[in-house]
Amino acid sequence: MEHIRNYINGELVDPRSGVWLPSFEPATGAVHVRVPDSGVADVNAAAESAAAAFPQWSKTPAEERSRLLLRIAELIERRANELAADESRDNGKPLRLARAVDIPRAAKNFRFFATAILHSSTDAHATDATAVNYTLRQPIGVAGCISPWNLPLYLFTWKIAPALAAGNTVVAKPSEITPLTAHRLAEICIEAGLPRGVLNIVHGTGADVGEAITKHPGIPAISFTGGTHTGARIARTAAPMFKKLSLELGGKNPTIIFADCDFDATLDTVVRSAFSNQGEICLCGSRIFIERPLYSRFRDAFVQRVSALRVGDPLDEKTDQGALVSEQHLEKVLGYVALAREEGGTVLCGGERVALNGRCREGWFMSPAVIEGLPFSCRTNQEEIFGPVATLMPFDDEEEVTSMANSTPYGLAASIWTSDLSRAHNMAARLHSGIVWINCWMLRDLRTPFGGMKQSGIGREGGWEALHFFTEAKNICVKL
Ligand code: NDP
Q1: In whole angstroms, what separates CA 84 from the centre of its chain?
Q2: Which of 20, 222, 225 to mutate to test the pocket of ligand 1 (most atoms within 8 A of CB)?
Q3: pTM of the model
Q4: How far is the C-alpha of 67 from the C-alpha of 308, rounded, in Å?
Q5: Active site (catalytic) residues
Q6: Residue of the nearest CA to atom 21 in ligand 1?
Q7: Domain with 215 in it
């Protein structure tokens, strides 16, 4: 069985503890790799190596940094099939999703930031005729990057690529639940010739490795994606040290469907937006509001489509819904289906554990659930479930749906479906949401600000926002 290793100072090394944790394949429920149970000593070694590499890396010309990051992108693409298979086995997601979305996007993250730094410019402010100011954006030093299990390589590289491109060195921790593609990235960085210490990857639990990164006095910036509760904990630790913080947290995203929408296009995408990756995407639309005249027609067609989704072995090309990431997470999601029933909801389809045959008989599968009859304010409609569960609610007018959509503590993403674009623009401006899609979902342009408001986080990733986060702005004033 493969033993994953940490990547510190340019080498693959064992954890100081000499202890490895089991990492499971969700589709089979069996251990498939072992992941280092690292701790403070490993993080200290990684931070030391990153600090030692910083002076040279931050002075490396942008063109050379860009060349190395593009080389990493190329190697990801060259190993795309293997990486997609690793991602699917580690996370439980359908292989064809990993092949179409996760791995190409990881390569794109490197390409995007590698080329962005070749086109950056700076601000200048003339103060009447008395002075000229210009702004330098300098790398911060060692950046800490902590990412979750749902889109493992995709989100890991979404942080690492801008941090490195901006001239920082990095200590990164993937989720211990899905460590495999981060390990492959370490192999790729070695092959690409990334200088020692520029990127360090420490595997292990959040409580040990994540905390050690957050607390480390030599890591002045933390970019974190994960749950709101963990984000709050990180903020409590980092705030008194005045660390720069980017927090991309949970969501409970509304999908708002008006009667004048393009029915077929809406139906196709809303099935996807609710259930892609088993609903384990922070952007999934789990609360579906439907204008009353369309409610029954949309509900019936939606339930028919969702019931037809094939739950199966993630490695099977015909599978639509793979396994949930862990047994504990499966139990949590099934617990929410039970809660929905207690709260008076009617489960229209799914919501049951699914037993498969063959190699997947012990896997963590469930059928995607559609629920109606719940008030917008109940726990099922307020708390993040992060699984294949969507609720349907009718609405009568824009006022009502806006206030229901805005009623949760979250504010990450929303989608609006209508052929009345004036209405769509007006609503988009009123939604408490960092991202609003009109007649589409997860249509991404990497230049746009990405992130949420309220308990969905602080700060934005993507484009210049990310490069600004990973730099300090310094104003230089010259008297004329
Ligand atoms: P967690 O918050 O549990 O974990 C995220 C990462 O933080 C993991 O690497 C985890 O390690 C680590 N971690 C856990 N505890 C600590 C700690 N005390 N200090 C530092 N790091 C810690 O989230 P999940 O992995 O369960 O991911 C699901 C969540 O992520 C959902 O809420 C989802 O909405 C959110 N998410 C948000 C996105 C966004 O862009 N806004 C995108 C994708 C997901 P380990 O796993 O090893 O315990």
Answers
A1: 17
A2: 225
A3: 0.97
A4: 46
A5: 248, 282
A6: 210
A7: 2-249+456-479
